[in-house]
Amino acid sequence: MRLSKSKVLLLVSIVIVGLFILVLTVWRNSTPEITNLAVSTSVDSNNKPINPTFTFKPTDDIYVSGRLAHTDKTTIKLELNKDQESISGYPKTFEISVPSYPNNYFYFKLEKPIVLLTYPEKKVWEVGEYELKVYPKDCLTPFKPVVKFKVSKDQESLTITEEEKAKIDRWIIENNLNQYGDPKNRIYTGGTPLFNEATGETIDRYEYILKNHPNRPWKNK
């Protein structure tokens, strides 16, 4: 029986689609893939996030964790943006390897981008909204796992009573520091650390001191 031209074309189309699906399935099952992306302040012994959250304080350590599928090792790329602008030092690449399923999780500790002028040096997160993309370095698909999080001021921890202000002032005198709780020889751009020339924002002197000394050393006196 001789097939019509339209039936031949239909059969050819079916075969081509079937082959395409087969190739796509094989490729997908052999291409590194990242799932279960999350951020948290700590991870457990299996690299899984403990109490994932999307809101952090400036001093928090932030860990990103995820699950690696279809392979046990690869090179991944991290992109980190704040308020839709790329953060200095990113993107970063990392070599990772994971145990076998179901514990095939990995994690990284994100590097805080802001350096405070303190001794010893401290780093913090700038307040704002962040977007993190984590994906295999040689990813050929447009899909890149994304997780968004926010860094906010910890209003409770920044609350300072008049009694505590008096303790801070005594601590400054006893440790021979300048009025900002820094070494007396510290030189500031613009003459003060309380004014941010980039944003035009000014912060309270005690708030500045507390941000640089979140462990409140004056309370031990």
Note down, in words, how this protein is organized.
It is elongated, with a radius of gyration of 26 Å. Strand 8 and strand 9 (122-124) form a beta hairpin. It is built from 3 helices and 13 strands. The protein is of the alpha+beta class and 221 residues long. The strands form 4 sheets. Strands 2, 4, 5, 6, 10 and 11 form a 6-stranded mixed beta sheet that branches. A 3-stranded antiparallel beta sheet has the order 1-3-7, with no helix packed on it. A two-stranded antiparallel ribbon has the order 8-9. It has 2 domains: 31-151, Macroglobulin (MG2) domain (Immunoglobulin-like, Sandwich); 162-220, no CATH class.
Question: How would you concisely characterize the structure shown here?
Answer:
This protein has helices at 5-30, 162-174, 205-212; strands at residues 33-40, 55-56, 63-69, 73-82, 85-86, 92-97, 105-109, 114-116, 122-124, 128-136, 146-151, 195-196, 201-202.
